[in-house]
Amino acid sequence: MRDSNCIFCKIVAGEIPSNTIYEDEEFKVFLDISPATKGHALIVPKQHYKDIYDIDEEVAARAMKLGKKLATHMTEVLACDGFNLMQNNNEAAGQTVFHFHLHLIPRYLGSKNNDILNWSHETFMAEEMAEIRDSLAL
Ligand code: 5GP
Ligand code: ZN
To answer: Is residue 35 part of a domain?
Structure first.
């Protein structure tokens, strides 16, 4: 399945160039064109899935497995100090490319871009927290 208007489908098909660091039958992993840090890469399934709601759960599980492997490899090669794996769904969550992808973001102590992913906090009363907990129980 591919979406003819999707930029990541075009990258997967080789119609748009990318700095690819890993590829197998199911995934392509390439450097983000506008990286948050040195080495910022994206794990992209070759099949077009819009987001976490749409993706086959086995494919999602294998994407995370690959994330573990690459985070370990990239940490060794880049000598980074930490690592974020991030995955955005829908505009409200910052998704801009609507083809599922897992961000691999190496982190470096003392780098100028260290406040990425730093969010301020909301406060909820204990009753609200309990209500949220109860509403979310599976
Ligand atoms: P999102 O905001 O959807 O989680 O992440 C989309 C990411 O894709 C962004 O970090 C953006 O820089 C990256 N991106 C968008 N277009 C291209 C492209 O054509 N090539 C590459 N390599 N990355 C892209
Ligand atoms: Zn696509």
So the answer is: yes
Q: Ligand 2 centroid vs 2 CA: distance in angstroms? A: 6
What CATH number is given to the structural domain containing 29? 3.30.428.10
Q: Are 40 and 31 in contact (CB under 8 A)?
A: yes
What is residue 91's three-state secondary structure?
helix
Active site residues: 101
**pTM summary value:** 0.96
**pLDDT digit string, tens, across residues 38-80:** 999 999 999 999 999 999 999 999 999 999 999 999 999 999 9
Q: Domain containing 29: what range? A: 7-113
3-class secondary-structure state, position 133? helix
Structure tokens at 58: 């086995």
What is the chain's percent helix, strand, coil content, to nearest 5?
30, 20, 50
Ligand 1 atom nearest residue 96's Cα: 3
Q: What confidence tens digit (pLDDT) does each residue in 4-35 have? A: 899 999 999 999 999 999 999 999 999 999 99
